Amino acid sequence: MDWDGAYKNRQTPWDKGAPSPGLVDLLEASPMRGRVFVPGCGLGHDVRAIARQPRVEVVGVDISPTALARARRFKRRGRETFLNGDIFNLPREFRGAFDWVWEHTCFCAIPVQRRKEYVAAVRSVLKRGGEIAAIFFLDPGLADPDAGPPFGVTKRQLNSLFLKSGAFEIVHEWDPERAYPGREGRELMRVMRAV
Ligand SMILES: C[S@@+](CC[C@H](N)C(=O)[O-])C[C@H]1O[C@@H](n2cnc3c(N)ncnc32)[C@H](O)[C@@H]1O
User: Fold this and answer.
1) In the β-sheet with 56-62, what is the strand arrangement from edge to edge?
2) Which of 30, 34, 50, 187 could tie 99 with a disulfide, CB 3.0–4.6 Å?
């Protein structure tokens, strides 16, 4: 997938111009504190929503320089920064440097065969006891599920990747009350702790 080309051509149907409703609700219920890593942040709507909270520093990473050039044009909301990079090749100084990961539509965007690498990448940036909060796209509603991205995932696959691997333990899981129009009932939210 040519992500930068998609941003250049403005073919970005995933970008809703606003943070994920599930994230907004989560932050209201339990704010994030410390350092937060956001993989595949795109234009950074979620990054800025997190950065509005007190005592938080957020780093959004995306492989598309065009997306990040646009992300940086938005008004700053707090201590947010953006880094152009590949989540499968993160800087050394990211290791164990974050209290939280916020996952939203990066996991479903990467090739299915790289999911174990994804889990290793997000585990590597977290401190022990740090947490990943995520919205997983269970059912993107494609007629051919292999025609993604987005690639859907089952709870069973998530358990195998994140829990049975021993990388994480589950803290909480729920169906989000709100979603972007068209995604209702298709998402799962989970908080998992790095062990
Ligand atoms: C479906 S988009 C979602 C963007 C954003 N989370 C949103 O909801 O608007 C997936 C994003 O992941 C980025 N991406 C894909 N592979 C990546 C990788 N290996 N490293 C970093 N970013 C990646 C793409 O450039 C794109 O911005």
Assistant:
1) 79-84, 56-62, 34-39, 98-104, 126-137, 187-194, 168-174
2) 34
Domains of the chain, by residue range, sit at: 3-9+21-194
Class for domain 3-9+21-194, per CATH?
alpha beta
In the reported structure, the alpha carbon of residue 59 is separated from the centroid of ligand 1 by a whole-number distance in angstroms of 14
pTM score, two decimals?
A: 0.97
Gap from CA of 62 to ligand 1 centroid (Å): 6
Task: For the beta carbon of residue 55, count every other beta carbon within 10 angstroms.
Answer: 10
Q: Residue-wise pLDDT tens for the chain (195 aa)?
A: 999 999 999 999 999 999 999 999 999 999 999 999 999 999 999 999 999 999 999 999 999 999 999 999 999 999 999 999 999 999 999 999 999 999 999 999 999 999 999 999 999 999 999 999 999 999 888 878 888 899 999 999 999 999 999 999 999 999 999 999 989 999 999 999 999
